[in-house]
């Protein structure tokens, strides 16, 4: 996907519009989602310190072992949401701000947030 692709530039415009109002703090970090054609990635970021506190993706061996039992990218994204919520709990994070990263809130992006909510993260 090149930089001249209209879909890519539209997503970047949406991303800038969203990010000017979203800031991850120490007490309420930002849950950022990235969606590629095959995989799903999620990170919990503290913008004030500039650090990634937790991360999960469909590429990890721990998550990939459970992915073989699940069909469809939406269900796999839900597992990523559950994994990021468990890792956040382990670090003492209960509340986050959801950053959809310019993607529309449906499908795999919504599945990540639903999986995280089911495992106890508050948005």
Averaged pLDDT: 93
- Helix count equals 4
Amount of helix: 40-55%
Give the strand tally. Answer: 4
Distance between the termini: 31 Å
Strand content: 15-25%
Largest beta sheet: what is the strand line-up? 3-2-1-4
Low-confidence stretches: none
Which outline best applies? globular
Tell me the structural class. Answer: alpha+beta
Largest sheet: 4 strands, mixed
Rg, nearest Å: 14 Å
What is the string of helix and strand elements?
HEEEHHEH
How would you name the oligomeric state of the polypeptide chains in this document? Answer: single chain
Structure, briefly:
The chain has 123 residues and is an alpha+beta fold. It has helices at 6-19, 61-67, 73-90, 108-118, and strands at 30-35, 40-46, 51-57, 97-99.
